[in-house]
Each structure stands twice: as C-alpha cells, then as structure tokens.
Amino acid sequence: MASDTHREAIQRQIHQDWANREYIEVITNSIKKITAFLNSFDMSCRSRLASLNEKLTLLERKIDHLEACINKDSIVRP
Amino acid sequence: MPLPKRVIEPIFVARSVYERNELPGDLETVTNTTLTNIMRQLSSLARHSEDLFGELARETNNMADRANSLQGRIDRLSIKVTQLDSEAKDVSLKDIHKKKAFKSATQFDQDIFSRATMPTAMLETYQTCDKPPPLDKLNCYRDDGKDGLKFYTDPNYFFDLWRQDILQETERMKNDRYKQKHKPKSESNASSGGGKRGQNKRPRQPTNTREKQRQIAIGHGETLMPNNVIYRTPNSIVNQQEVPVYSTTDYYDGRPNRPNSIELRRSYPEGSESGYAPASPHYQQQMSYPQQMNDESAYNSAMYAQSQIESPYGAPGTPSRGGKIRPTQPPPAPPSSGSGGTPNVSNANTPTRGRSMSQGRDVLPPPPPIPSNISSPQQVANGILRHPGRTSMNTRGDSPQRTDLNNHVMAQLNSQITNIDINDLPPPPPVPQYHMSPSNNIAPPAPPIAPPPPALPNGNLSNGITTNNKPANIITPPPNHAGLLKEIETGISLRKVDPQQQNQRSYNQGDLMKEIREGIKLRKVEQMRDDIRQQKQSNLHDVASILARRVAIELSDSESDSDDSDEEWMEPNETSA
Predict the structure, then answer these.
(1) Using CB atoms, which residue from A17, A34, A59 is nearest to B31?
(2) Measuring CA to CA, which of B34, B115, B295, B309 is 20 to 30 A from B6?
C-alpha cells in the first residue's frame, strides 16, 4: 500500500511537472513569437521608414530646386 | 564576428544550480526557477521592445517633422507659384550678379556606421565585449613608433586601406595626366631642341604652336602629312653631314647637348662658387662646363645682334660642337699626376676633344700649352678643357667670313669697353698677355709669333691670381681673336679687353646664377607641392574630403592645362642655362 501511495505521489508529481513544463513551453513559445513579431515589425517598420525617408529626401531636393527656381524669379523681379 | 543587436538575457531558462534534497521538491524547484527565468526573459524582452519602439517612434517623429516641413514648403511654394506672373521676365544681367548662388541646405546622412551613430542596443552589446589587451602600453618600448595595439586590432584598417588605394589612384591619375601633357612637349623639345643658341625660347615656341595647330587641325577632322618626320630627318642628316665639313652648325646639334647643359647647371653652383676645383677628373669636367657655358653665353650675347643680321652665316659661325660626342666624352687627362698636363698631352687631346668640348668657343684662341710643372689640378683642368674649343676655332678661324664676324664682335666689344668702369674690376694681370700670345700664334694671320713659353704660365700660377681670374683671362681672347691680333700687335688695348670680358663674363655668370637660382626655386616649388600633397594626404581622414579631392582632381583639367602652359614657359629658362 505504502509503495502504491508513494508511486501515485510520484506519478502525480511527474504529471504536475509535465503540466508545468508544458506551461513553460507555452510561455517560451509565446515569448519567441513576441520576439519574432517584434523583429519582423522592426524590420518592416525600418524598411518602410527607409523608403519613406528616401521619398522625403527626393521631395526635399525637388522642393529645394523649385524654391530656388521661384526665388530666383522673385529676386530678379524687384 | 556578427553580433546580435538585442539579446534577451537568460538564454537557458531551466538551467540553474540545484541542491539535491529530496525528489518531490526537486521538480517544483526546477519549475519555479524556470518560471522566474522566463519572467526575466519577459522583462528583458519588454526592455528591448521599448527600446525598439522608442527608436521607431523617434524615426517616425523625424519623418513626420520632415514631412510637415515639406508640406509647409510645398504650400508656400504653391502660393508663390500662384502669385507668379509669367509676364514679368525682365532678367537683367546686373541682377544676376547680385544673386547668391544656390546652395542646398539639405544635409545627407554621413558617418552611418561610425561609433557615434551606433544604436544604443548595439552599443550595449559592444560594451559587453572584452576589451583588447592593453598593448598600447608597450608603445614606449617600440622603436618604429607604431601603435602596438594596431597589431592586435585596428578598427581603421580597412578605411586606411581604402584611403591609400583611392589616394594612390588619384595620384596616378594626376601623374598620368601630367605625363600626357608633358610627353608631347618633351618630344617637341627633342625635335626642336637646338634652335638658335642665343635664344632658346625662340625655336621652341613655334614648334609648340605648330604642334598645337596640328592637333587642332586634327581635332577638326583634317588629315595632315606627318610633318614631324620630314621636319626632323633633315636635321639629323644635315647634322651628320656637316659634322665633318663645318664641324657641325649650332643650329642642329643643340638637342644632344641639352641633358648635359642640365647637368652643368646642377654641378655648377658647387664648382663655381667654391672657385676651387677638386682633384677628381670627373669633377673637373663638370667644373669646366659652367665656364664653357659662360663663354658661350658671353659669346652669344655679343654675337646675337650680328647673328640676326647675318643669319645665314651667323648660325653656322657659332661654335661647333659635336654635342653628341660630348656627353660620353671622358674627362680630360687627370691632372692628379701633377705634371701630367704636359703640353704634348694637352695638344694630343685637343683634336679629339675639339668637337666635343668646343661648344660656343670656336672664337677662343688655342690655350697656351700647359706648363709641365703645374701643381694645381684646377689649372690643368682649365687648360686642358679649354683646348678643344680653341683648336676647333682655329680650324675655322681661317675663313675670311669668320674674321669678319670677329671684327664685328670686336667693334662691339670695343664700344662697350669704353663704357666700362675698369676700376671695379681687378687689375688685369700681366699674364693674359702671355695667354694671348697663343691666340696670335695660332691665328692664321700671325703665325710667326712664337708659342708662349711654359714658364710664363708658371709665373702666372706663382702670382697667385685668383682662380676666377684665370679662366676669365684664358677665355677672354676668344671672341675677338682676329681683332686681338691687331691689338696685340699694337699692344695697347689688350688689357682693357680683359676687364671688359671679365665683366661681361661675371655679368653672365650672375645671369647664370640667377637662372640657376630660379631653377632651384622651381624645384623647391615642386617639392612644396609634394609637401602640400603629403600634408593633404595626412589630413585626409574622412571619406567626404577624400572623395571631394578626387572629384576636384578630376575636374581640374582646365587648371592643370594652364599650369602646364606656365611650366612650358618656365622650362626654357631652366634649360637655357
């Protein structure tokens, strides 16, 4: 009897341990997912920001050019 | 070694130090430890994500700001554009000058990968790295002055590599351009090198313009006959043909002499300034060159006016030099033996060397036979070296035209003599007369005069006349030896002639020195350029300046053109010495 109860206790502990491990596994998996998401988010954000930056730079140059053209006229006029 | 940007800290969550107590508690302990480590991971993840989002937010804020400012500018621009009236287009030239040049205020990203612009997460990762061993503390024990740490790690290694590469390439491009610009010039020099002796600039200029014109014509698509071939061959042919007959004309043989003249110029300051000829024969030869040049220049300055008039004859009348022979000609018999310079030896040497050495000195009388007991090597050097020129002159002195020319020179010199203040000059030593006598002796009209006794030159030596005077005295007779004959016969104006010559010679020497100095200055300028270049190289530590310099060099074609033309102008001065 005692051996049976001891074995049951051990089995319960092992089950519990398995349950805990599964729980830990879920948590770590979710952490991995979070990191993966954060990484991909970071990457996509950065790429988008970079493309946006490129466009902005282009626009700034164009605006510079346009401003220079118009200011030239405006300076010459008076 | 690639480094992850962000590392979530406890990597092995389940690993820890456990104590072996009892089995049932064991599993729980492991689980709890793992859970705490997971929480640590989560906190680390939160921190990193905060950092990540913070960076993204900062960048997006920057973008938003830029976009907002851009929007504002676009609005302003649109307002301005709507206000613009297309009719008012009176652009006056004055207003154009008043305007400022457009300059973009946009700053582009620089130093993207430098330590300063490194993201904070990366910086933290870097800071966790082990520092290199402090090898730089051993620098004080190094002899070569290198940084000991750079043997272990050198963050700037690749940049330095790139910098050297780029700079060398830039220098090479510059040099190539320099060579390309100077090659045709040197060729033209070689082809037109000789020209008239008195005016080195003259012959060179037309050839340059011809080259330029030719290139321009070719550039316009015209095909030209190969002028250069026709242009050069006659020279060489005539040169070779005339060597035996006229013993060369000055017109054509200037080219081979040029390198030597440069050599002369180099060796000149030492020899002339010290006024002391060292014992080595080679040095004596060098020493004699400048004097030859002096003679030549003196002669040319005197002769130039008439060579203009009697151009057909004037040029051929100029000294004969088998310049080609001269460079390879060994120095005169070494005087080291002291008594080696016997008259016989010198006479024997003269004919062979006559053509080679007689540059510009056809008018010079033959040198007095060298005294047998000459003690000073310099005297021997002067005597021997002078021989060739004089002997060759003698051969040509026979022609009546020659004497005519000499008479012209003589008349000119006499007119100049009257203007000279003789007091400035050292009193003419009695020796010159003796030296003159050889000229009388050799000159065709007065053969009867006996050659000077060797003892007289000795007396000259013993008189302690300065070395500068000696060559002058020896040289003086040449230009007008035909006229000198008469004068010597009259025996009066001879001393005056000497100071005159000497004065002229010293003047020419001054000129020469000036030119030499200019030449040296020129070289110094080049060296300064090199120094500046090196300084620039040492100063070029960032990419922008290096690239800017490279672009500047590529764009500096027109400038370098002007520089080259300047140098082309300057070079005749150098080589004219």
Answers:
(1) A17
(2) B34
